[in-house]
Amino acid sequence: MDLIRLADDEGNSVVVQVTGRYMPGVLTGHDTLMANVLVTTGFVSGRLRVRLSPGDLAEWETALDSSAAGRDIGWMGGRAPEIRIRLDGERGCPDVVVDDVPGSMAAVTVPVALGEGWMDDQRRRLDEVRRRWPREVVEPSFGVHEWSPDRKRRP
Q1: Distance CA 3, CA 28 (A)
Q2: Coil, helix or strand for 149?
Q3: DSSP conformation letters of 47-103
Q4: At what angle do helices 54-68 and 118-132 cross, to 10 degrees?
Q5: Using CA atoms, how far apart are residues 91 and 129, in angstroms rounded to an integer?
Q6: Measured between alpha carbons, how far is residue 7 from residues 18, 20, 72, 102 in Å?
Q7: Which of 81, 84, 83 is nearest to 101 (CA)?
Q8: Is the CB of residue 63 less than 8 Å from the CB of residue 73?
Q9: CA separation (Å) from 14 to 7, 11, 44, 86, 136?
Q10: What's this model's pTM, rounded to 2 decimal places?
């Protein structure tokens, strides 16, 4: 399921594709999600595996709020890869920078077309990821993990 999908008509895209839980059934890793960051341009194609915590999803929501206010987006900064959406990129059109210099020593700038409604689409995707993989672990005190009383057991 795509948490983020930003693309243009020329085949350039940045996609963050959530593939499932990191450690299903294990309290300390159950709510962490595995994902692929997929980058495609006419020149470069690549994939990075990442783990997304519930905090990362909250940070993505905050970043979308920032963009709604007309500001560029920075997501997953402080670790690699960082994803930045520049509303007025290098060529005067929106672009996405995937920066994994600390890990793979690569940074790629991808021009994208952010059409009307792109932010609503990203919010819908975020909501769908949260619906599919809801938080099921609570931390009542630091370092103590328990199953949420609202957890829905799956067969």
Answers
A1: 22
A2: coil
A3: EEEEEE-HHHHHHHHHHHHHHHTT--EEESTTSSSEEEEETT-TTSS-EEEEEETTT
A4: 160
A5: 32
A6: 17, 23, 17, 25
A7: 81
A8: yes
A9: 6, 10, 11, 13, 29
A10: 0.90
pLDDT band at 93 (very low <50, low <70, confident <90, very high): confident
Q: Which residue has the tokens 């593939």?
A: 19
47 class by beta-carbon count within 10 Å (0-12 exposed, 13-18 middle, 19+ buried): exposed
For tokens 């983020």, what's the residue?
4
Confidence bin at 154 (pLDDT 50/70/90): low
Residue 108, H or E segment: strand 106-111
Q: Judge whether 149 and 129 are in contact, CB under 8 Å.
A: no
Phi/psi of residue 88, nearest 5 degrees:
-125, 80
Task: Quickly tell me which residue has 């520049």 as its tokens.
Answer: 86
Alpha carbon distance 75, 96 (integer Å): 11
Closest CA to 72 of 61, 87, 54: 87
Please give the structure tokens belonging to residue 43. 């020149």
